[in-house]
Design goal:
Layout (H helix, E strand, L loop, with lengths): L1 H37 L3 H29 L1 H21 L4 H29 L2 H12 L1 H43 L11 H4 L4 H5 L2 H31 L4 H29 L4 H21 L3 H29 L5 H30 L3 H16 L17
GO cellular component, one term: membrane
Pfam families: MFS_1
Organism: Hafnia alvei ATCC 13337
Length: 401
């Protein structure tokens, strides 16, 4: 009975996670009709995507506090309810550019509570040995959403328009929020942890730690191509390569498939065969991803673009998963919570910077070459910045009188 209850909880959280990622995926395709309807400039389109991640960055730490104060179930339901409500407002009430920005910002605020609530739910309902597998299932929803999301997005855009698409997504988020409220059990007492795990390391010491600083930079750089391509790839393929919208969705789906496969396999492979060599994995995979991203721009064939994007996301996600698990291996438990908050903020800031920076590059260069150079460079930086971490462990910086 307990197994069935936990399986149902993971299933519902997985579906909710998929909705969150589909929301981000649909925006990239919706920018095409939004651009025509509002006669927007490229940098304005970048702001529509960027403000979402700005809100996500700002409210990530407060969302963690709300989880501790009110419990994960209330924050889970509230997060999906807010995300769904503001998605509906984006489609139905977004009549000006200012309103579009406002509702995407508010949707990002709702999104900020979901990942932290899921992590809290996993911690409260699974033993330490079971948590990694449970969390990997939830994280794999990103790949599923990026595989199915483009196909669903194009179908909905063609049949019910971008406004109807966001309204439908909002209704779906309401339904899952209700299911979680009804079917997911109330928070139980967390599994016992050692006394050192209860303590929070001082932020000043963490901010001086080379490990935390370098991981912050690496996650920031890795999320720039991840979310930059999500926002701008459909527009590039349709307007610059002349592909039909349906074909561009298949290209994007190939990248999502690569992300899904990589997220499911990387943790096992690195944990079993590359212990202590994580820096080599990140560096090599980031460089290979940079090459593949460059080839996506260089090719004019939809099949070749799909293939290069697939491998580009395979290597990018391999780097991301490895970097994301490094704090658990290099940092002590008494500073883990604070450290992950700092490092995750780097990732969300990357999602904020990417679409805005790419929008300005498209406008200034009147093309996409400079944007792909930008993506290639940040991928190379994400690989090289990890190399100094070889064999390095955390040691607190002692304050001097």
């Amino acid at each position: 009975m307990q197994f069935q209850r936990r399986s149902l909880m993971i299933f519902l959280l997985f579906i909710g996670y998929a909705i969150v990622y589909i929301d981000k995926t649909v925006v990239g395709f919706a920018l095409l009709p939004i651009e025509r309807e509002f006669s927007l400039q490229p940098e304005q389109l970048g702001y529509i995507t960027g403000v979402f991640f700005l809100a996500y960055s700002i409210f990530q730490i407060p969302a963690g506090w709300l989880n501790d104060r009110f419990g994960f179930k209330k924050v889970l339901c509230s997060s999906l309810f807010l995300l769904g409500g503001f998605a509906m407002c984006f489609g139905w009430v977004g009549l000006t550019f200012g309103l579009l920005l406002t509702f995407r910002f508010l949707a990002g605020m709702g999104h900020a509570g979901y990942p932290t609530s899921c992590a809290k739910a996993v911690t409260a309902n699974f033993t330490v040995e079971q948590r990694t597998f449970a969390q990997s299932i939830l994280l794999s929803s990103a790949g599923l959403a990026m595989t199915l999301g483009p196909l669903v997005a194009v179908y909905c855009l063609e049949h019910i328009g971008w406004r109807g698409s966001f309204a439908s997504l909002g209704i779906l988020a309401f339904i899952i929020s209700g299911c979680i409220l009804w079917l997911v059990p109330n928070p139980q007492k967390a599994w016992p942890t050692s006394s050192t795990q209860q303590k929070s390391g001082p932020y000043r010491q963490l901010l001086k730690s080379p490990i935390v600083i370098l991981l912050f930079i690496a996650i920031f750089c890795l999320n720039i191509p991840s979310y930059g391509l999500m926002a701008w790839l459909p527009k590039f393929l349709v307007q610059n390569r002349g592909l039909p919208l349906g074909v561009s969705s298949l290209v994007a789906a190939a990248g999502g498939l690569g992300m899904w496969i990589s997220s499911l396999c990387t943790g096992y492979f690195v944990g079993k065969y590359m212990q202590g060599k994580e820096h080599k994995v990140v560096c090599s995979c980031s460089l290979l991803s940079a090459v593949c991203i460059g080839l996506v721009y260089a090719t004019s064939s939809a099949i070749s673009a799909s293939l290069f994007l697939f491998f580009g996301y395979v290597f990018l996600m391999a780097s991301f998963v490895t970097v994301f698990t490094l704090p658990m291996k290099r940092l002590p438990t008494d500073v883990m919570g604070a450290a992950m908050g700092i490092i995750n903020t780097g990732g969300t800031l990357g999602g904020f910077v990417a679409p805005i920076a790419m929008g300005y590059l498209v406008k200034m260069s009147q093309g996409y070459f400079s944007t792909f150079v930008f993506l290639v460079v940040v991928m190379i930086v994400s690989g090289l910045v990890i190399l100094p971490l070889a064999g390095k462990t955390y040691s607190p910086v002692r304050e001097t009188a």
